[in-house]
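Dear colleagues,

For the upcoming journal club I promised to circulate an example of a predicted protein-ligand complex. I picked one with zinc ion because it came up in last month's discussion. The inputs are reproduced below in full, followed by the predicted structure.
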Amino acid sequence: MNALRTDLGTRLRAAAVEYAAHGWPVVPVSFFDGRSYTCVQADCVEETMHPVWRLWPDRASADPKVVAAWLGMLTLSVAVRTGVVFDVVSMPEAAATRVQAALAERHTATPVAVWRERGRRLFWVEPGLPWRPVLGRLDARVSAENGWVPVPPTPTRHGPVQWAVEPAQTGWCFARHEDFLAAASAG
Ligand SMILES: [Zn+2]
């Protein structure tokens, strides 16, 4: 158990450093240790994943050295701040797989992650996505300014957050608004 946890801690840190190196603002979140979410506050009673600092938006960092230091001291999970470099659209699994297929058909490459604990997939898009009725029909939610989403390989009660489309496959680029909304309408 200890060795496993150390290995996961190493992978979480390596992933966080890579996100930061590509300009993604990293936010440490509570770590699921197999039973519950643990964070840096000894008296924490939150039972779901959450940023470990109250004033986390100001502390989110895309400096690989800073991020490596945070995750070197403690085993924490990895999230990214939204609304600055990108927005993230989440939608339920069924709608999400249709939209993901529509994106692929249109050759619109953008990172997609699976957050099984919430039964949703996450789509990275350029920041400032305007709200459109199609997003409501898909039960989509936009994580924008002062929001965060977990990123792989963050563990959850239902297994790790995983990439369905890795950012390296997209050249670390995000879908443009019109391309994403066109795929969403087709899905
Ligand atoms: Zn906490």
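Two points we might discuss: Residues 98 and 187 are 5 Å apart (CA to CA). The two ends are 42 Å apart (CA to CA).

See you all on Thursday,
B. R.
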